[in-house]
Amino acid sequence: MDFSEDQLAAWDRLSRLLAATGADLASGSLAPQSDGAEGGLLAVTGKAGSGKTMLLAALVAALREAGAEIVTGDWQGRRRDGRRLAVLAPTNKAASVLRLRGVPATTLHRILYTPVYDRQ
Questions:
Q1: Residue 25 falls within a domain, yes or no?
Q2: Is there a domain that residue 55 lies in?
Q3: Rounded distance, CA 83 to CA 85, Å?
Q4: What's this model's pTM, rounded to 2 decimal places?
Q5: Is the Cβ–Cβ distance between 110 and 70 less than 8 Å?
Q6: Residue whose C-alpha is closest to residue 84's, from 34, 20, 27, 39
Q7: What's the pLDDT at 77?
Q8: Average pLDDT value for residue range 69-89
């Protein structure tokens, strides 16, 4: 995938942040989440047409290839092992645009108000 300079800079920042959680995009490996560690939140923002969707598509592909499980609004997983990733959008229109580009996304609202999985 050919990234612009801004996208390359964003990819580098994302890679560093994810590496700190055990997700190494360079090697394609995922370390198990540490005991007691909570999940994190990472926001990708930018102007329309800046390449956010393309960047997220590459990120999801790399994490899926490394073994991350993708959480969507319809996800019903009950496994406690493994690493998970959810791509959330602020509106249904934004989630729809992401899905059209192959990024499994849902809205923040749907994840907040739908019992996706039991954390106990």
A1: yes
A2: yes
A3: 7
A4: 0.76
A5: no
A6: 39
A7: 57
A8: 71
* Cα 14 to Cα 53: distance, rounded to the nearest angstrom: 14
- Span 29-58, average pLDDT: 78
* Residues of the domain holding 52: 5-31+46-113
Side-chain half-sphere CA neighbours of 110 within 13 A: 16
80-107 pLDDT, tens digit each: 566 778 888 999 999 999 999 888 898 8
Q: What is the mean pLDDT of the chain?
A: 80
Q: Residue 69: which H helix or E strand, with range?
A: strand 69-71
Average pLDDT over residues 60-82: 74
SS3 17: helix
Residue 119, domain member (yes or no)? no
Q: How far apart are CA 85 and CA 72, in angstroms?
A: 9
* Percent of the chain clearing pLDDT 90 (strictly above): 12
Give how many domains the chain has, as a whole number: 1
